[in-house]
Specification:
The protein is mostly beta strands. It contains no helices and six strands. The chain has strands at about 10-15, 20-25, 30-40, 45, 55-60, 65-70. The protein has a four-stranded antiparallel β-sheet, with no helix packed on it.
Length: about 70
């Protein structure tokens, strides 16, 4: 699950497929990164890993692959 990777979910957005979530999650160091979470297979993919806080991710309409976020 997602809480193996993050201690807190800050914001999230569902893809139009209803099975994929993009989220901003805070790790144990207090840094926020962007993750994809697939609800069908419980798979988590970390998309960012940098010193900046990455927040407010959203999917582009009709896409489960294109996202935008603040960094």
């Amino acid at each position: 699950g997602i809480y193996k990777h993050v201690r807190q979910v800050n914001s999230f957005n569902f893809a139009d497929d209803g099975a994929t979530i993009v989220l901003s999650g805070e790790n144990t160091l207090g840094q926020s990164d962007i993750y994809l979470y697939n609800l069908r297979n419980n798979n988590v993919t970390q998309l960012t890993n940098d010193i900046y806080d990455d927040e407010n991710p959203v999917f582009y309409p009709k896409s489960a692959k294109l996202i935008a976020f603040n960094s």
